[in-house]
Amino acid sequence: MSTATGDGTGTGTGGGAGSGTGGTGERGGAAGRAARGAGAVAMDLFRKSWFVVLILVVWWAISATGLVDPYKLPAPGDVLSTLGTLFTDRALLDDLGATVLRLVEGWAIGVVAGVLLGILTGGSRFLEDGIRPVIAGLQAVPTIAFLPLAILWFGFNGTAVLAITAFGTFKPMALATYGAMHQIAPTLMMAGRALGAKGLFMQRTLIFPAIVPSLVTGLKMGWSFAWRALMAAEIVVTGAAGLGGVLELGREIGAIDVVMAVILVILVVGIVTEQLFFTRLERWVNRRWGLVGAR
Fold this sequence. Notes:
By secondary structure, the chain is an all-alpha fold. The protein has ten helices and two strands. The chain has helices at 14-65, 76-88, 91-122, 125-139, 147-154, 158-181, 186-194, 199-236, 243-253, 256-289; strands at 2-4, 10-12. A two-stranded antiparallel ribbon has the order 1-2. The longest helix has 52 residues, at 14-65. The protein is flat, with a radius of gyration of 29 Å. The chain starts with a strand and ends in a 6-residue tail after the last helix.
């Protein structure tokens, strides 16, 4: 709406008011979306952290009431203080780096070896009859039982620890791959052969893509088995740098706060790995292969 005065001066109100109202509405909508987004983030954080918070509260309550000897269960604050001290002098960082590097290397070696053997075993009745029972039997043998053999072969050093870590990954990975091979639909194999696929070409273009979704579970299982084997080996082979050696040192000197601090570090590494790698890998595989119920 416009109005004009006698001297020819005009003022406009309609367009300005409309623009102002629209701008206010847009800002209000943006603020609402931001609030809803912040609320969703807060709820997601709560769902993922409530159990950890509950454990910390119970831990603090038990230590504060003196129900347990502080030597056996130090307060959370004492453990966090010890953890800060260990990180300050960088010694724990070096041990953490050595452990993570050894873990990734051993896991990768075990994954490659396990996948290859699993594919070969699952694709050949002759190999299946001879190899599968042995691999299944090895699953019943604790990986750490092979540590003395690894020490005799490689010496009392980090190479023996790496070998045990790789072997701990290899066993579940081989069985997981073998199981995935047997989940491939026979009609898919028949179609591939009918189209002339064979040998390495069939392995690369048909078999491997078909087993990838099932392999994700094997990768996670192999990672957890690698952690167990690695920690057990590092505790025994104290000459090799790593978190296991720090755990054993804490036990020797009776520093339970050091032991619990290292356990917290291992827990955090596990959570970070799960959230940043395996969860994203699962989502990508689910989207890539169009699996029902993918999240």
